[in-house]
Amino acid sequence: HFPDHQIELSYEAGCCGFSAAREFINLGWSVTIVNPSDIPRMDKQLYQKTDKLDCRNLAKQLQLGQLKAIYIPTESQEQLRSLLRQRDQLVKQFRKVKAHIKSLLLFHGITIPPEFDNPNWSKNFQQWLFQLPWPNITGMQCLHSKLRVYNLLNKEILQTSNELRAYCRKIHHTDYYLLKSIPGIGGILSTAILAELGDIRRFNNERQFANCIGLVPGIHQSSETSNYMGITPRCKALLRTYLIEAAWVAIRLDPEIQQFYRKHVGKNQKTVIVKVAHKMCRRILSVIKSGIPYQIGHN
């Protein structure tokens, strides 16, 4: 197809991943994938929209150089990301099953002993649930069915987590252990960073890195009025959630982070913890680009 021509192609990112882009790149074509929200459009196109008009607009904006391409991951990175998100789906289902079990006990008037009433379910608590007496066998069968699902999901989460860590230790050995050297970042978060972002060295500065994750404020300014709308909805949602959770751990482990957090005592905790997560972004980028493990208290 068109052997004597330079071909440039563009399409909107969608549910089909990046397999098509890689096929076109193998043909020697120049491929630009764009976020649908970032394509310049006129007001007229809000009322007259067809696939043909969208294609014409996309081609015109590509010709004018108005399109900002998004990062095309490699096939191995895309599949690693799929495994990470599969684990996230398993964790969500696991939490639902725990809520269903507690809801069943509440519905039938069964009180959980105080020593077992906490988020972490011990083996003793699970044994207590299995041995719980029921006046009717169907109630026991219902609970045991939920417990079997609970145990199955728990095993799947553990196996998937081990597979993620083992893969990154083997394939991304250097970056994996550089990330783990930062207080608050463990094995799962290290794999999440590598899976969601790929090659971190492609970011030129910390601002680009934090903007990609979504740890920057949303702002609407007009004339003399400025309206801050919290953190931007444009984000890597899963990675941002993991980083904010890791920030709470870093406060306990790193004296410098703890001191930074205490400077903002009295302010909105949600705002402060986002600032801590933003500070961790700087450390992540610095550690990866320098290739030197993080050291607590090192000036």
Folded structure, characterized:
This protein is mainly alpha-helical and 299 residues long. It contains 11 helices and 4 strands. The strands form 2 sheets. A two-stranded parallel ribbon has the order 1-2. A two-stranded antiparallel sheet has the order 3-4. Helix 1 links the parallel strand 1 (8-12) and strand 2. The radius of gyration is 25 Å and the shape is globular. It starts with 7 loop residues before the first strand and ends in a 9-residue tail after the last helix.
Short description:
This protein is 58% helix and 8% strand. It has 299 residues and is mainly α. Strands 1-2 form a two-stranded parallel ribbon.
> Approximately how much helix is present in the residues?
55-70%
Shape: globular
Instruction: State the end-to-end CA separation.
Output: 58 Å
Task: Tell me which oligomeric state these chains represent.
Answer: single chain
Look at the helices and sheets and give the structural class: mainly alpha
Element-by-element helix/strand order: EHEHHHHHHHEEHHH
| Rounded Rg | 25 Å
Give the strand order, joined by hyphens, for the main sheet: 1-2
Low-confidence stretches: none
Number of strands: 4
Largest sheet: 2 strands, parallel
> Helix tally?
11
- Report the β-strand fraction as a percent range: 5-15%
Average pLDDT across residues? 91
